[in-house]
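Hey, I'm writing a tutorial for new members on how sequence and structure tokens pair up, and I'd like a real worked example in the thread rather than a made-up one. If someone can provide the structure for the chain below, I'll link this post from the tutorial.
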Amino acid sequence: MKELEVSGRTVDEAVRKALEQLGVGEDEIEVVVLKKGRSGLLGVGAEEAKVRVRLLRPQSEKVDIANLAKDVLTNLLKYMGIKAEVSIVPPTSGDLPISLDIDGEDLGVLIGRRGQTLSSLQYLVRLIVSEKLKIWVAINVDIAGYKKRRYESLRNLALRLAEQAKRSRRAVTLEPMPADERRIIHLTLADHPDVTTQSMGEGEERKVVIFPRKR
């Protein structure tokens, strides 16, 4: 399994950087904190946090796994009575999750409110494939590029609300989001000089809060 050591101003920031480099979610990694880090006094004696992240998925035979995931998703759609085509999306960089895209007509029912139905479908595909292989596999399922458009919208929203938090010097709370969407907000603002982010709440009500940095 692949391991990665990453540093950041805080442990959370180091973990977010690792997630961005690996292209996976929080539930797909194991984290070991090597250094907690410290802010120091007026910057003097400051020390960065450092974590070791282990990827909980295979690094070989990705083509066969992708075909298995495609077959699983195709069968699920068939059992649901939905006519659609499933394709494997080629990765755009070295180490992204296996990605599948569903194309067809009237597929809004598969997206659901806030993308919850799509998230559930993706989880089901991951669960079935991982059970067959006896290892956890990161699989991304999208519908006609919905996630790509949604993620770009979330990045723009994160930047706008970060400016709002910066100007008002008050925390800004976003609406509840699934884990993959919260991750987009965290990653977008990970290196922002004026704000920090934190997930708060439980279950379906978990949301991201953007805090202005203390001067």
